[in-house]
Amino acid sequence: MRHAPFLRPLLLLALVSACREAPAPPATAVPAPSAARPPTDVKWGTLEGKVRLAGTPPAPTLSPTTGTVVSVCGEQAEDRTLVVGAEGALAHTVVSLKSGAELPVPSALPADPVLDQKKCLYEPPVLAARAGATLTLRNSDPLVHNVRAASGSNRSYFNVAMPLDGMTTRRPLPAQPGTLPIHCDIHPWMRAVVRTFDHGYFTTTRPDGSFRMEVPEGTHTLVFWHERLPQVERTVNVRAGERVEVTQDWTVSELK
């Protein structure tokens, strides 16, 4: 649907008004990563491996875009809740330590997350971050988007209008660990999810399904999370200076 030029400023004003941020809940005592320093007497090892999906994955769902955005986004947008590469490599799986909050501060603290909007898709579709960290939002499209984050019983945590190409803004993530879905109300096929933790022992798998994490020596419970697959926990023992390889395989029959 096309709008007369004189209506566009009114529509933009209405969008910005609708996206006024709801007050965030009071922060709790989550230690700020920048204030923490890793102890010098900890001995470290490395966890690395690959996550794979066995079997032929279903074809991704395609959503038709609207006529006004086809030149930027294409005629169809591909669902990215399941991204499978060569030999079943499963991207965007969140890998974390179950009891990471009880461990010393990581030797390398995770950077604050960045969520971009490119060709009418959120990039990346899955993020992992510290609870209470600052999420950077970027719009790389010459289109109006908005970023609505809902937590709890679908209550809006923040809702930000991003009408300008190249616009960047920042918003705090909830102070409590959990899962935060993100949507664009203008382009309903756009969605992402943020998993947050009260520690720094987490990562996401790369396009080839690989991951790597430095951890203190000892016995750890490794948690594999994917929004369309059952959560899996694996116990691993890591010695100082040792590299432990862990492979996690799901099958297509387990897909939700």
TrEMBL record:
Q: Which residues form the signal peptide?
A: 1-29
Q: Which residues form a coiled coil?
A: none
Specify whether Transmembrane is a keyword of the entry.
no
List the keywords (alphabetical): Signal
UniProt-recorded name of the protein: Lipoprotein
**Which species does this protein come from?**
Myxococcus landrumensis
Q: Which SUPFAM superfamilies match?
A: Carboxypeptidase regulatory domain-like, Cupredoxins
Q: Which Gene3D superfamilies match?
A: Carboxypeptidase-like, regulatory domain (2.60.40.1120), Cupredoxins - blue copper proteins (2.60.40.420)
The record ties this protein, via InterPro entries, to: CarboxyPept-like_regulatory, Cupredoxin
